[in-house]
Amino acid sequence: MSECQRCVELGKKPPRDAHYFNPDRCKKHRRYIHQVQCVVCHESFLKRGDRVGMICPSCRSNKVAETSPKPVREQETDKVVDRMVSTGREVTVINGVLINDVESLLKKIGFDPDSEVVYDKQIKSYQGFMRRIDKKVVKVQMFSIGVKIRPNNEKQILDGLKKDVLREIKRVSPIIKTPRVKYDTQAPHLLEVGTFELHLGKYANFLSTGADYNLDKAEQIFTWAFEELLMRSANEYKLSRILFPVGNDFIHFDNIKRTTTAGTEMNDAVGTYYEVKTRARRLIDWAITRALEVAPIDIVIVPGNHDTHAVYTLGEVLEAKYEGHKFVTVDNKPHPRRYYDYGVNLIGFTHGRDEKLADLPVIMPVECEEHKPGSWSHSIFREMHVGHYHHRRKTESLRDYKGIGVRLLPSLAALDLWHVTKGFIGSLRSAEGYIWHHDLGLTDTKFATLKRT
Questions:
Q1: Is there a contact between 241 and 428 (Cβ–Cβ < 8 Å)?
Q2: Could you say which of 60, 115, 260, 262 is the most buried, measured as most Cβ atoms within 10 Å of its Cβ?
Q3: Residue 33 and residue 24: Cα distance in Å, rounded?
Q4: Which domain holds residue 37?
Q5: Structural contact between residues 318 and 412, judged by C-beta atoms closer than 8 angstroms
Q6: Are 272 and 142 within one domain?
Q7: Which positions ≥6 away from 5 have C-beta within 8 Å?
Q8: Number of domain units in the chain
Q9: Residue 208: which H helix or E strand, with range?
């Protein structure tokens, strides 16, 4: 029995099992023999040591390894670990190549925003070690991306509750009595009532801004302007329909925290969210009832940057209330722009905060063919009506799109302290009514302008 060479070097007596694996090493100093797979030719071979993933002697002698590509690390396959936990599931990917951010990870796992919600995100970076093909161990930068997902039970409950409420409203909604008026459906004129930017719920003080404005004042101004435009138009023209765009910052804030949709706090707000929403609904109901005494009415909901959610829910209530009504229609599609055609006229509505005015004539024909096929080709007179700017102006589009008007409508709301401080003053507070002829386009404009105090 030969002695262990390592034990001899250390001056130790070798144990009895020195020949157990290797005649030159004892059990303590031996190197294990493994059957591994060559990373180049994928053939199995015996290798001493505890390191795997090496090259067989044949490939090494033929120098195949020098021309072969490096093996792909396991992490480069974007292996996603998706495991269930008590609160939902946890998903993690380490050193992803194709998956290198949270959005791509959510897309990979088929995340459904309607039924799931991400309640935690973790992006970690740390130092790690990797053995290359040439046996050299190098330090590498590693990272991991993880998300924690749980079922969106709250949204499911709210959606179900919302559907139940709307279904119940439709079931118990009383039959809306239409005034005993014989409508002239063959009349050639349409009245568009442009009572934009009311900002119901805004507060202004005469000493600070030059005008008093509150909930009662806003209701008084709206009813006066609507009545003024309606009666002056009905006394002069035979109207077949009335177009009433609702929204464009009709409400000053969008939630119980009294902030806009983007989260800007309205320090000049008055009244609670529930009070303002109730008053807004009653005002619109009054306007619809009053308009039905003259002609059928079409309501178009136009979201603003102050009341995107509030005016959408208001539109849903109107849809449910006037479901099946012969003389009332409500357009409350979840889209930032609306289009309405009457004869050879095509009218578009948008709040105007997010789009460039020069781009609207380009957007209009594309969306019209998607939402109202044929409306663009059948129209001759085309206009986009925009709010947000609180003053009256009419601009034409670029020369290549000549003939598509972009009209900025004025506001009925008083200036608040922010506008006065910034110097945005001098604009007339008014509403406008447009008389559209079925075949001749825009023929007249009515104004309801408040006197300066």
A1: no
A2: 260
A3: 14
A4: 5-67
A5: no
A6: no
A7: 24, 25
A8: 3
A9: helix 206-209
Residues 79 and 63 in one domain: no
Contact 237/189 with Cβ under 8 angstroms?
A: yes
- d(CA 240, CA 413) in angstroms, rounded, equals 30
pLDDT tens, N- to C-terminus, the chain (453 residues): 455 665 666 666 655 544 444 455 555 555 545 566 776 777 777 666 545 456 777 777 665 444 444 444 444 445 666 666 555 677 776 666 567 677 777 887 777 777 777 878 877 777 777 676 677 777 777 777 888 887 776 666 666 666 766 666 666 566 666 666 788 888 999 999 988 889 899 988 888 887 889 999 999 999 999 999 999 999 999 999 999 999 888 998 988 888 888 888 888 888 888 899 989 999 999 999 999 999 999 999 999 888 888 999 899 889 888 888 889 999 998 888 899 999 999 999 998 777 788 788 888 888 887 778 888 888 999 898 887 665 554 444 334 456 788 888 888 888 877 778 777 777 788 899 999 999 999 999 999 988 765
Q: How many beta carbons lie within 10 A of that of residue 166, not counting itself?
A: 15
Same domain for 116 and 192, yes or no, is no
How many whole angstroms separate alpha carbon 263 and alpha carbon 156?
A: 24
